[in-house]
Design a protein that fits this description.
The complex is a heterodimer. Chain A contains 17 helices and three strands. By secondary structure, chain A is mostly helical. The two termini of chain A are about 30 Å apart. Chain B has 23 helices and 21 strands. In chain B, a hairpin with a 2-residue loop joins β14 and β15. In chain B, α10 packs antiparallel against α23, α15 runs parallel beside α21 and α16 packs across α19. The termini of chain B are far apart. Classes of the chains: A mainly alpha, B alpha+beta.
């Protein structure tokens, strides 16, 4: 038995390496990462317990069960060979696009947008999964491309189309926040693949010019969000209400908070849907700046560990997908926190692992499962057999 | 392998760059959080408090009014009402629409609510509807989730157990006017009332009390989560009157269907024991708002139910003025107890003949007899001798035509004419005016309250003044007990002469008030009748032998009677005016007889049961 210290194996021992034991694989999992994920879920449990008015119902317990299920899923993926997972990159992408189309036709309308479909009593938001599937598909596309190849426009074109198709569908839902995140993940994978910097510079410049035109094509509610973001006081009980109440919740926390279960903004329901998008305000109000910083540190540790996995991975597919997953998690945090603080317009982006809701949790944990599989299998070699 | 390694290091570079950028962004988020949570904590903490705590003023319970024996004259009654705190409603307009669907309100009430919503501070709730019916209550309770900010609570309204009987003395309350509510936000509170007449008006401030407040923590839906603080405020103080409910009710009963007024005083200290004015009105109607038809009925009633005739009704005193004239003449020295004047039944002045009202020739009589038989001619002559200014001075000293400083609103001063007054009015005073002044006719106009004061002063020789408020809270008001009123500047001998005359009026068969004498052993009443013309009979009417008593009601003479008793130790003084009641002896004196009999047997002035303050709340309204 070879110790868990190194799974590096010469290509000739391929057969053994492909089937190395479950126990060794489990030992190879980055348990520090799993610990951080569980800690974050614990923070989420505490926040949801508070959001329920000091009760395990209705949020905390059901979210705990979801997390435990997703944790098993994640560990299951972690011990699955990344090369096996990689085979499903494009099929998964195709499935994601299909689900987005299903949402358009038969989705539930929630908060004015068609984002959800029901699968056997289980609400699914395909756009959450699409971000992971897109990273995997682009990883598969770019995994064997050199930097020069990657910057070849003809080679980039299918990748660009692969990004724009789901982004367009998500925009149509409409869900501006997730669409922007999805596009950013695609761009990140392309950046990791070695696409030249100035391509991105040109893209940013084009977007800057096109922004007013795009703004014109936004839905009225999206425009309203941007307007109220720029001036929340213009409509304190309407669209600007969330931003104002959210900032009051943060600000009333002070350095050490009002005490667990004693945040007035939270306990008195001044924040609508506080258990989902605005869950961070509960922590910030009841535990103050100290609690906020602790959560920020935990979030960044997870991002750093994901980047560590990407950097230490020996195969390009793993590097690119891990980078995409790290970026996805970062963007969740960035958009959600900025929104809560009134830095960017409000959009339906939850704080991963803390916010109440199954869809984002499942998607994030699926991504973490793939990430851990990459970590466990960071030294494997893709052969032509693994071509896909 | 080399290419792969190169690519890997390029990737690592880019990944580290991304990671650094992400760390930078997290740093920015942390900095922003520091700004919000720590640097601006004070500002947001304040906003959070204002967010959740709302303060509402609650009206104090108005103090009760009771009579001297502790009988409730004005109390509070409970009823249900709906208030609205717009600050507790996320969308006030929708809430109001929901409310109107359940409790339809007329357009003018909706306009009032809309006006008050915009003009009043947030801690003053707006009254949606007072006196909720049971069905409305039930509908509101069931729909409370759709009515955030709507409060259904017990309100207090004023009720008057004696009803119309004590309406003028006790007064009534009504909603404050818009101007009053604007000047004093406390009055803008739903349920606040302002005293509009009687004691309710004079003692409005002590009765009103201080408002309390309720601080409630509300959630975003306006649902009250808990009460943070509760200050009941100060309930209004109780006010105890010198009035005696039994005597008051008797006075009203004795006046019966007559229009008129009765004032009974404690002759020793001026305390008002009864103050009746008929016809009267229901004071309880003002709290809810008087229906228009009833209001118009009161306004157009020729017998003026809204006027307090006891304090504001001005009447010619007629012969009840004769004791004043007698005292003025005695003081001036133009008359002594022994002076006898010839009374042939008429007085000729120039070519004008002043008849004695009874057209009776009494021969040579002294002042005592003149009072006893109420000789007009005697007093014609006395008035001419003494002149109107000394008469007015004596009248003022006896409380007639002068400010009595009574603690009641709308007390008319009345008028006893002087030469100065005549000059200021451009009236050319002639001797004939002085003649009729001798019998209390002409320009002289007095209130029943001042007539009662006059007879009390004649009886006691002290300058007592009428007062109705005996206690505020538990504090006895000055003058209520044991106060030594100053002696009048009148020779006791003169008073004795007049008192003898008044004794003879009631207690001798020839006296005009003999029928009203008391049937009590060892107790006598002294008094004076009065019959005051309100109609100047024309020559044609006189030629036709027109009889005053058969004229239309509004032109018949007013009947008056003033009295005090017991004669030897005056305790009670009373003045009765029956409008158009013809002879004083006929309609006014029997009322005085009835009241005096009651007073002397029941001793109302001796009753005094201090209230405990605050009083126990009134029983809840049945039949809700």
């Amino acid at each position: 038995m070879i110790g868990g210290s190194s799974l590096a194996a010469p290509p000739r021992r391929r057969l053994r390496e492909r089937s190395f034991g479950l126990a060794r694989k489990l030992l190879a999992v980055n348990w520090l990462f799993v610990l951080c994920v569980c800690l974050l879920a614990g923070v989420g449990y505490a926040a949801l317990y508070s959001a329920g008015g000091g009760s395990m119902q209705p949020y905390a317990n059901s979210q705990l069960f979801r997390f435990l299920g997703a944790l098993v899923l994640m560990l299951g993926l972690a011990v699955t060979d990344i090369r096996f997972i990689a085979r499903f990159s494009w099929p998964a992408y195709a499935l994601g696009v299909l689900l987005l189309l299903v949402v358009m036709v038969a989705g539930h309308t929630g908060l004015g947008a068609k984002r959800w479909i029901s699968l056997g009593g289980f609400d699914l938001q395909p756009s959450e999964l699409m971000k992971l599937f897109l990273a995997m598909a682009l990883g598969a596309h770019f995994r064997r491309a050199s930097a020069d190849q990657a910057s070849n426009l003809l080679f980039l074109l299918p990748a660009a189309l692969a990004i724009l198709l789901p982004v367009g569908l998500i925009l149509k839902e409409p869900n501006l926040g997730t669409a922007v995140i999805t596009a950013a993940i695609g761009g990140t994978v392309m950046l990791g693949a070695g696409v030249r910097w100035w391509y991105f510079a040109i893209l940013v410049a084009v977007l800057a010019v096109a922004a007013p035109v795009l703004y014109h094509h936004l839905h009225a509610y999206q425009q309203a969000r941007i307007i109220t973001f720029l001036n929340p006081g213009s409509d304190p009980l309407g669209a600007g209400y969330n931003i104002i109440q959210s900032k009051i919740a943060l600000g009333s926390g002070g350095m050490f908070g009002q005490g667990y279960l004693h945040g007035t903004q939270n306990q008195l329901n001044f924040l609508p849907e506080k258990q989902t998008d605005f869950v961070f305000t509960i922590i910030a109000e009841e535990f103050g700046y100290a609690g906020s910083i602790a959560v920020l540190l935990l979030l960044f540790t997870i991002i750093a560990l994901a980047l560590y996995t990407a950097i230490t991975c020996k195969h390009a597919y793993g590097r690119l997908v891990a980078l995409g997953i790290a970026m996805n998690f970062f963007l969740y945090c960035f958009v959600n926190l900025s929104m809560v603080m009134g830095l960017i317009p409000v959009g339906g982006v939850p704080l991963p692992l803390i916010s109440y809701g199954g869809s984002a949790l499942t998607a994030v944990m699926l991504g973490f499962g793939v990430l851990m599989s990459i970590h466990v299998h960071r030294d494997v070699v893709f052969t032509t057999d693994d071509d896909f | 392998m080399k290419r792969a390694a190169k690519e890997k290091s390029a990737f690592t570079r880019r990944a580290l760059l991304l990671g650094t950028a992400q760390l930078g962004i997290f740093g920015g988020i942390a900095a922003r959080l520091y700004h919000l949570q720590v640097a601006q904590h004070g500002k947001y903490a304040l906003l959070a408090r204002q967010n959740s705590i709302s303060e509402r003023l609650v009206p104090p319970a108005r103090g009760p009014i009771a009579d001297r024996a502790g009988v409730l004259l004005a109390g509070n009654q409970q009823h249900w009402r709906a208030l609205f705190m717009p600050a507790q409603a996320p969308d006030p307009r929708t809430v109001l629409e929901n409310f109107y669907r359940l409790v339809p309100l007329p357009a003018d009430e909706r306009a009032r609510i809309a006006r008050e919503l915009t003009s009043r501070p947030g801690y003053i709730p707006v009254l949606l509807k007072d006196y909720l019916a049971w069905s409305e209550m039930a509908a509101l309770e069931v729909n409370m989730p759709n009515l955030p900010g709507v409060i259904v609570e017990v309100g207090l309204s004023r009720y008057y157990p004696l009803g119309p009987a004590a309406a003028h003395a006790v007064g009534y309350v009504a909603r404050p006017t818009q101007a009053e509510a604007k000047a004093n936000t406390v009055l803008a509170l739903p349920g606040m009332r302002v005293g509009r007449s009687g004691v309710e008006q004079v003692q409005d401030l002590p009765l009103r009390g201080e408002p309390g407040f309720v601080q409630t923590e509300t959630n975003v839906h306006g649902e009250v989560v808990r009460e943070v603080a509760d200050d009941p405020g100060l309930p209004g103080q109780s006010v105890q009157l010198s009035l005696h409910a039994g005597l008051q009710a008797l006075a009203v009963r004795a006046l019966a269907d007559n229009a008129g007024a009765v004032v009974m005083l404690d002759a020793r200290n001026g305390e008002i024991l009864a103050l009746a004015s008929t016809p009267s009105f229901d004071p309880g109607l003002f709290d809810r708002g008087v229906p228009v038809d009833i209001w118009n009925g009161w306004l157009h009633d020729p017998r003026h139910p809204l006027q307090n005739k006891a304090t504001a009704g001005l009447f010619a005193p007629g012969s009840t003025f004769k004791p004043t004239v007698a005292l003025a003449a005695l003081k001036a020295g133009v008359l002594t107890a022994e002076t006898r004047l010839n009374c042939p039944g008429f007085l000729k002045l120039g070519d004008h003949v002043f008849w004695d009202d009874a057209h009776t020739a009494y021969g040579d009589i002294d002042v005592t007899t003149a009072l006893q038989v109420s000789s007009d001619v005697f007093f014609y002559q006395v008035a001419l001798k003494v002149g109107i200014d000394p008469i007015a001075a004596m009248a003022h000293q006896l409380g007639l035509g002068t400010n009595l400083n009574a603690d009641l609103p709308n007390v008319a001063t009345g008028l006893v004419p002087t030469h100065d007054w005549a000059r200021s009015r451009g009236i050319h005073w002639v001797a004939g005016d002085t003649v009729v002044q001798g019998i209390g006719q002409g320009y002289t106009q007095l209130t029943p309250l001042s007539l009662a004061t006059m007879i009390a002063r004649v009886a006691t020789g002290k300058a007592v003044s009428p007062r109705i408020t005996r206690r505020i809270g538990t504090v006895l008001q000055p003058g209520a007990n044991g106060v030594e009123w100053p002696d009048l500047d009148i020779d006791p001998a003169h008073l004795a002469v007049v008192r003898q005359g008044l004794f003879d009026v009631v207690n001798t068969p020839d006296g005009t008030g003999y029928a009203a004498r008391l049937n009590l052993p060892g107790v006598q009443m002294a008094g004076k009748t009065g019959t005051a013309q309100v109609h100047n009979n024309t020559a044609a009417e006189k030629a036709a032998g027109y009889n005053d008593m058969q004229m239309a009601w509004a032109q018949r003479p007013n009947a008056l009677f003033v009295a005090y008793a017991p004669f030897d130790k005056p305790r009670y003084a009373v003045a009765v005016v029956v409008e158009h009641g013809n002879y004083g002896a006929q309609s006014a004196a029997p009322i005085a007889h009835e009241l005096m009999t009651y007073a002397l047997t029941q001793d109302p002035a001796g009753q005094d049961r201090p209230l405990s303050n605050p009083m126990a709340p009134p029983p809840p309204v049945e039949a809700l």
